[in-house]
Amino acid sequence: MSTTTPEHDERVAKLTFASVYPHYITKVEKKGRTKSELHQVIEWLTGFDDNKIEELIKEKVTFKIFFERAKLNPNAELIKGVICGYRIEDIDTKLTREVRYLDKLVDEIAKGRKMDKILRTT
């Protein structure tokens, strides 16, 4: 098992969803995908609908609080691969792994992957 450092995990926990969200939008739109597709994967992963996403942005919640409130999709563990230099399935820290799940889904949208594959339905 490879792991992230406690300092890295701490930084991830303190990041606000609102500070990262615009980067997610930019990343997917730059590749010709939409905000609604981004929201679809966020809802799939966390259970948060459009209104809840907006509420969490306004509230400036940290990723720690964001994922504490989320109802993680049971298929989230099917998200595998390398993101930010870490193999997702090998990340020991639950919160950091969950944030990387979201990062990976955003990457998959930007890479033009089909939604049924991103949402692990096939």
Keywords, separated by commas or semicolons:
122 residues, Helicase, Ruva Protein, domain 3, two-stranded antiparallel ribbon, UCP033199, DUF2200 domain-containing protein, SP1917_dom_sf
Describe this structure in words.
This protein has helices at 6-14, 17-30, 35-46, 50-59, 63-69, 94-110, 115-118; strands spanning 82-83, 86-87. With 122 residues, it is mainly alpha-helical. The protein has one domain (6-118): Helicase, Ruva Protein, domain 3, CATH 1.10.8. A two-stranded antiparallel sheet has the order 1-2. Helix 2 packs across helix 4 (50-59), helix 2 (17-30) runs parallel beside helix 6 (94-110) and helix 3 (35-46) runs antiparallel to helix 6 (94-110). The longest helix is centred in the C-terminal third of the chain and has 17 residues, at 94-110.
Written as H for each helix and E for each strand, in order along the chain, the element string is HHHHHEEHH
Rg = 14 Å
* Widest sheet, order of strands: 1-2
What is the top-level CATH class? Answer: Mainly Alpha
- Any idea what the CATH superfamily is called? uncharacterized protein sp1917 domain
Please state the overall shape, judged from the principal axes of the Cα atoms: globular
Note the total helix count. 7
Mean pLDDT: 94
- The CATH architecture would be Orthogonal Bundle
Query: Major beta sheet, specifics?
Result: 2 strands, antiparallel
> How many E-type strands?
2
Which residue ranges are poorly predicted, with pLDDT under 50 across at least 5 consecutive positions? none
Strand fraction = under 5%
Considering DSSP H and I runs of 4 or more, what fraction of the residues is helical? 55-70%
Structural class: mainly alpha
Distance between the termini: 28 Å
Tally of distinct domains = 1
Annotated CATH topology: Helicase, Ruva Protein, domain 3
Pfam family, one: DUF2200
Organism: Winogradskyella bathintestinalis
InterPro entries: SP1917_dom_sf (IPR023204), UCP033199 (IPR014580)
Protein name: DUF2200 domain-containing protein
